[in-house]
Design a protein that fits this description.
phosphatidylinositol-4,5-bisphosphate binding, mainly alpha, 3 domains, 73% helix, Exocyst subunit Exo70 family protein, exocytosis, Monooxygenase, 24 helices, Exo70_C
């Protein structure tokens, strides 16, 4: 004979003793107090009302008992008649009210045993219907369809009888897929609410989790998300890894904005009456897949590092940082904190990897020990490599600003530079790296025997550096004052080159007696020709890598030599013509 304690144990034991995890604790906490249905729980009943409730429940339950007929076994109640399905749910809620009344007023009543048997049969039916709706509407409950809805757009209604009317009203402004999706979600919510309120939440959630987790796992698989061992990651060719990183960046956007968000919306609708259950259920379904997803960038960050890999690390960092508001809102509940922690950990590890590679990049510049001068004073390979690298890196200036914030530089910039850039970590970091490059180039000047070529070497390389800054986002990082400072330095290098390369030519045109004669004129012309030929042979062997710089240097040389030559020509050409009877060019 059932007692009150036995009955109450029935309602709670289904939630206890079979996995005391967070999810089932949430179910136990929600059972019997499920929002709107709670209004149908314990009320004063008389024996006539109890028998009437049992009779109605008997009729519904028997009709749809899979063991009673082949028709009931293969037919879906909700597919056959949604109106009758609502009445079925209402009869179950009334049956629960009768059971609670009998347990408190007449625990030895045979009607209590009968009611208990009917309830168990009804729950099996509802569990089956719940699964059928989930399975049959799999395509309409896919994350892409569901994610278009809002978690706060649950259909509100005071009575189940008005649900069809409300959905029809909504259906006027939505498509067929959305309409079917809305109906399925409403039906699932109705069954879930009933099963939770009657103490069978665990069975309901178990079915939901099996179906929905398979959808999440399949979705991630289709997106190319896979479990990679650390040993496989270490052995993987970087070219293949780059392809996987590109695929992951595409996958994470869809996974966060559609797959996980859509599941969150569905959980919020189906288990709308219990915040604890919907949060714990969502966490259980998505936790494994989400942690696998966000574990990939962390694994990449732990791999072998080199400056060339930095850009892919930054791409990964950018993808997560851009999605962080969506990650934070979708996985906002406490039960999903592990997913948020995994995403934060990925950002942290990627940031550490980028800082490490920046330090290695600087160290590589410092260690460059090439002792062979670049032929003809041309562009040093280190200059080209460093500036191409930095100009690409400048495209990530916003992300880098976040990564290097709080990462102090080992040395301070010279005042002449620090006073000419913005006071922020990213400007200082780039200015420092270029300063390291310039210092390294200065150290290579001693490799040239010809002083003029050494100045041309500095001119070519600084001109390239300035050009790269002007033509990339480095301009916005370093600013106009930095450019002005280094443009002036470039001008000084160019002047030094012209003076050291062509000053002897100009001097040869000014070294003659106060009262020159034809012989001194011929000697002056010989000196000029010799010095010009020497300078010409030397400098035509050099190279100017930039067209505009080349024209500028030509103009400077002309300004130095041509006026002196004109003066010399005017002074001596007449004397030579008188003596030799010929023109002098």
């Amino acid at each position: 004979m059932a007692t009150k304690a036995t009955l109450l144990s029935l309602f709670s034991s289904r939630e206890r003793g079979r996995g005391d995890g967070e999810l089932y604790s949430a179910i136990a906490a929600s059972s019997g107090s499920s929002g709107r249905l709670a209004s149908a729980t314990p009320r004063r009943l008389n024996s006539f009302q109890v028998r009437d409730i049992l009779s109605r429940a008997q009729a519904f339950v028997s009709k749809w008992d899979p063991n009673s007929s082949a028709y009931a076994k293969i037919t879906s109640l909700w597919y056959e008649s949604r109106q009758e399905a609502k009445e079925y749910v209402r009869s179950v809620i009334e049956l629960q009210a009768a059971m609670l009344f009998l347990a408190s007023s007449n625990p030895s009543s045979p009607d209590l045993i009968r009611a208990q048997s009917l309830m168990q049969t009804a729950m099996k039916r509802l569990e089956k219907e719940f699964y059928q709706i989930l399975a049959a509407n799999r395509d309409y409950l896919d994350p892409e369809s569901v994610s278009g809805r809002s978690s706060t757009s649950t259909l509100e209604f005071e009575d189940d009888m008005n649900l069809d009317d409300e959905i029809r009203e909504v259906g006027k402004s939505i498509g067929d897929v959305e309409r079917v999706s809305a109906l399925a979600m409403a039906d699932l919510a109705s069954i879930a609410e009933c099963m939770i309120a009657t103490g069978y939440g665990k069975e309901c959630v178990k079915v939901y989790m099996i179906v929905r987790k398979s959808i999440i796992d399949e979705g991630l698989y289709r997106l190319g998300v896979e479990r990679l061992s650390s040993s496989r990651m270490k052995k993987m060719d970087w070219g293949i890894m780059e392809m996987k990183i590109k695929g992951w960046i595409h996958a994470v956007k869809i996974a966060v904005k559609t797959l996980f968000y859509g599941e969150r919306i569905l959980c919020d609708h189906v288990f709308a009456t219990s915040q604890h259950i919907r949060e714990a259920c969502f966490a259980s379904i998505t936790k494994e897949g989400a942690q696998l997803l966000f574990g990939f960038p962390e694994a990449v960050a732990r791999g072998k590092k080199s400056p060339e890999k930095m850009f892919k690390m930054l791409d990964l960092y950018d993808a997560i940082a851009e999605l962080w508001p969506d990650i934070e809102s979708t996985f906002s509940c406490e039960s999903s904190s592990a997913v948020r922690a995994q995403a934060v950990s990925a950002l942290t590890k990627l940031g550490e990897a980028v800082r490490s590679m920046l330090a290695d990049f600087e160290a590589a510049m410092q260690k460059d020990s090439a002792k062979t001068p670049v032929p003809r004073g041309g562009l040093h390979p280190l200059t080209r490599y460093v500036m191409n690298f930095l100009s690409l890196l400048a495209d990530y200036r916003d992300i880098l600003a976040d990564i290097v914030a709080g990462w102090p530089m080992k040395k301070s910039l010279p005042v002449e530079i620090s006073d000419r850039i913005d006071d922020n970590p990213i400007s200082g970091r780039f200015a420092w790296l270029i300063l390291v490059l310039l210092c390294k180039l200065d150290s290579k000047v001693s490799l040239y025997r010809d002083v003029a070529v050494s100045y041309l070497f500095l001119t070519n390389n600084l001109n390239y550096i300035i050009g790269k800054v002007q033509s990339s986002n480095l301009r916005f990082i370093l600013g106009d004052m930095w450019l002005q400072l280094h443009t002036e330095k470039l001008r000084q290098y160019a002047i030094s080159y012209v003076q050291t390369a062509w000053s002897k030519v100009a001097e040869a045109l000014t070294e003659f007696p106060e009262e020159p004669d034809a012989e001194s004129g011929r000697e002056a012309f010989r000196r000029f020709s010799a010095s010009f030929e020497e300078a010409y042979q030397s400098q035509t062997a050099s190279i100017v890598t930039d067209d505009r710089l080349r024209e500028s240097l030509k103009l400077s040389i002309a300004r130095m030599v041509v006026p002196a030559y004109r003066s010399f020509h005017g002074r001596f050409s007449g004397l030579l013509m008188e003596e030799e009877g010929q023109s002098v060019v």
